[in-house]
Amino acid sequence: PVALDPDTLCRMGQAPRVSVNVAVKQLQDNGFLTVVQEALALGGTDPGLDIEITESGFVDNVERTIAQLDSLRNMGVGLAVDDFGTGYSSLGYLARLPLTELKIDQSFVRAMLMDPASSALVSSMVSLSKALKMSCVAEGVETTEQAQRLMALDCDQVQGYLTSRPVAADAVPGLFRRNAAEVLRLLRGALDPEAVQLPASPS
What we know:
This protein has 10 helices and 6 strands. It is an alpha/beta fold. Strands 1-2-3-4-5-6 form a 6-stranded parallel sheet.
């Protein structure tokens, strides 16, 4: 975990959203909501927190899981289903859960340019997220070609080495000081790989 003090956040101009992977056992713990409330109390008015849980976790004690997720949404916490497409998929459960984001597993993203079946699955997952009014994130995006395809499919966000490799804690503020021109260059690179040289990934 990376803790950023208020002065650092002010210099960055805005507080970043933070995504936290949570195991089902943690989610169903009686004290979990209290822990989240206490953590949110340390922040500002915008919770800025997303909790990610794998789809296989939803089938254990479904009613309890739904109750916990409902409570988290009432706190303003975003809820994502992580590594979608790799676990136990029940569309019935997915429609009942108060999720805000669907994250397509990187295995499909990496294969979609070479495997028509994977490409079709990614397209279907994006469409499913739209139908359920969730945002869609593609994991494991490493090339502009992958980003191009995902943009054509109307995927909302990408995550992966194309935008940044993992960085040390003290380098995190620098990621949020990228100016608008640099971000624009990155987006243009996704639209036209020949148009611009992508910025170097932080080390």
